[in-house]
Amino acid sequence: MSGPWSAEVWRIASIALLGFLVGLLFDRPGLFTALGMFGYAGWHLLQLYRLEHWLRTSRTLNPPEGWGIWGEVFHHIYGLQQRNRRRKHRLAGMLSQYQKATAAMPDATVVLGPNWVIQWFNEAATSLLDFKASQDVGQCIENLLRNPALGEFLAKGAKGTLEIPAPSDPRLTVSLRVVPYGDEMHLLIARDISERQRLEKMRRDFIGNVSHELRTPLTVIGGFLETLAEEAGQDSRWAKSIALMREQSLRMQNLIDDLLLLSRLENEGQTSTPEPVNVCDLLGAMEADAALGMAGKDHVIELECEPGVGLYGAERELYSAFNNLLVNAVRYTPTGGRILVRWYVSTQGAHLSVTDNGVGIAPEHLPRITERFYRVDPGRSRESGGTGLGLAIVKHVLQNHDARLVIKSALGHGSTFTCIFPPERVCPLPVSRVSGGSQELH
Ligand code: ADP
After folding, report:
1. pTM
2. Deepest of 64, 202, 322, 359, by most Cβ within 10 A of its Cβ?
């Protein structure tokens, strides 16, 4: 037993004994013992009252003076208060550091509670999102950032990022990202991406302009080369060189065409209104073109097409994407290969797959294969007339159609490229417009 407690026990025993001895003098030991105990209990009650009164009303940190076990209790309460005070100071310091750090952040940071109610935001949110500290805390964020896209974004679980005009200045664009944490809590981070967008636009415009400017001189050179080829005829001294020059000028023209297409796809995004596209007709035309351009490779091209299923989209862009996949299959499959083009629907949406039994792609190349000018085998690609932009075009067309590309490939065994379109892009076609079924071309 610790010191104060053993002293307390001794005190109780002494009072009881004293009461008993005094009681003996008056021949009432029991009564005097009880009176002593009663008096001591009253003193304890008084200390308890002082403590409760101090806890309830006192503004000072110092507890009342105490004696005996109560002195110990008051002393411990005082120690506890001192520790709490130090901890509070430390936490307040940390909070102020944290607030200074978030205030210094160039990105607007907003803490959102249940139902997207604003609980706190930093300095940047006042300038970028036009929030006012005095009146906007406690408001639902949708009431302040009045943009229909935001409501839809939040309703769909706030996945990914959303780009909207900045409420403070509609010429600026902010990118919003919502990170969930804790219980129904979210952190909204808004970043000004206007500068990045401006630089991206400059880059796109630059590529577009350069390609456009190069197109005219190249057409002129191509025209002269054609004339020269006719003039030179079978003159063996020039025929070979001219044929080579024509081949290279054609390659450059293809490259410029692809660059222009890519720049148009990037600039336009999804602005063009989707039209119902008869995919089976499109694939039929594409297959016929591919058969013409097989350059003696003698592949078997099979087409399986689900009738009555079309796609909402831009026909020209879809043709470019699908054609790039088919041309690649022809290009990267050795003579006498089998290529299967399938158009079918599943619960995931509509699928366009191109399967070949060609050279295949090693797994380490797959993550980068849709990058511009990324080639597994640059020599083979150039030799077969590839620009290195085909799959980048496919990726952009699919992005503009809310679709994704899935690539499955095994080195030496062939590849399957599948474009998956969401169900809302699928459109039924009247039977009269349908030209489906399955056919084979050599
Ligand atoms: P390229 O014009 O060089 O074909 P792409 O962007 O169309 O450029 O393709 C990028 C690279 O991906 C190609 O260089 C080739 O190595 C590889 N590739 C594309 N399609 C196939 C395929 N069907 N089989 C094997 N490799 C392929």
Report:
1. 0.69
2. 322
